[in-house]
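Hey forum,

I'm writing up a methods section and want to include a predicted complex as supplementary material. The small molecule is fe (ii) ion. I've pasted the protein sequence and the SMILES. Can someone with a working setup run it? I'll credit the forum in the acknowledgements.
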Amino acid sequence: MDRSLPSRWFMRPLLAGLATLVLLLMAGAAPAWAEFSLPPLPYAAEALEPAIDATTMTIHHDRHHAAYVANLNAQIAADPRLAELSLEALQGQIGDFPAAVRNNGGGHWNHSQFWMVMAPVGQGGEPSPQLLQAINASFGSLESLKSQFDRAAAGRFGSGWAWLIRRSDGSLAITSTANQDNPLMNLSGIERGTPLLGLDVWEHAYYLKYRNRRPDYIAAWWDLVNWNEVNRRFAAA
Ligand SMILES: [Fe+2]
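Reply by user p_vandermeer:
Happy to help. Structure tokens for the complex are below, copy them as they are.
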């Protein structure tokens, strides 16, 4: 008689159950955001062509954004407070951290929103009636918003971002930040608000295709704006 059969029959589910319990306990004990991770692009690298070419998208996401994530994670060992914060919560406290966290934490948040506020041509929808009403109240028209945004994006000296934000009083505004700063950050000199739409004007975002012609990149980028996502951010703000 094979005595191991009843033993296996009994032990396997028991061990599997114990393993599951341990995994569940570990998942409960560790915050889900203990380490930051690179989100995948929500579309193929070539999906935004011709406005943004596949090579630029691949390098931008797989190298630049990935480096911000890796460099931010490298800071966790030096400052365990980072392991307790979500990426968004970190932005509001970024002034309490050293420059490496500011640059890489900002870089991770900024790029994560950047991929989401773009969509292949024809798939981004239109501003919702509610958003359009707020745009008209703050800028007069969508065209006026775009021209103000274009000036902020083209006029940002060096590297940085242009933003459409919702202020705490409900009005909308165009702002610009240097480097990897953003309007969520608790830093002096930054107009704070909820970012609805952010455009990367670092040279790494456009130089392969547009060379030094940043205004051409900005003009082409408007065809990619994912208004469905901007509407969602506006409704949630
Ligand atoms: Fe970038």
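Some notes you might quote in the supplement: The chain has a mean pLDDT of 91. Residues 51-237 form a domain with the minor pseudopilin epsh fold fold (CATH 3.55.40.20).
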